[in-house]
Amino acid sequence: REVNVPEVTGLVVPPGDSVALRTAMETLAGSAELRARLGEAGRSRVLARFTVEQMIAAHLELCAELISRAGP
């Protein structure tokens, strides 16, 4: 959910729904344009949001929050 934007960077199917998964896979298999568009959007999103610096900052922020919750 953090990486994918439904219908922009990928397709989403409900967990355990094999029919929806099959449909999504058939949709992707049948459209080179859709695969290219979703792939490009996904790469752009990852490069913009998930740099090493951003991931380190997010983890440090989480650690600080957890430490503050633990108390003395």
Blueprint of the fold:
Elements: H1 18-29, H2 32-49, H3 52-70
Structural overview:
The protein has 3 helices and no strands. By secondary structure, it is mostly helical. The two termini are 34 Å apart.
Q: Overall mean pLDDT score?
A: 94
The radius of gyration over CA amounts to 18 Å
Strand content: under 5%
What is the approximate shape?
Answer: elongated
Q: Summed up, what is this model?
A:
With 72 residues, the protein is mainly alpha-helical.
Give descriptors for this structure.
mainly alpha; 3 helices
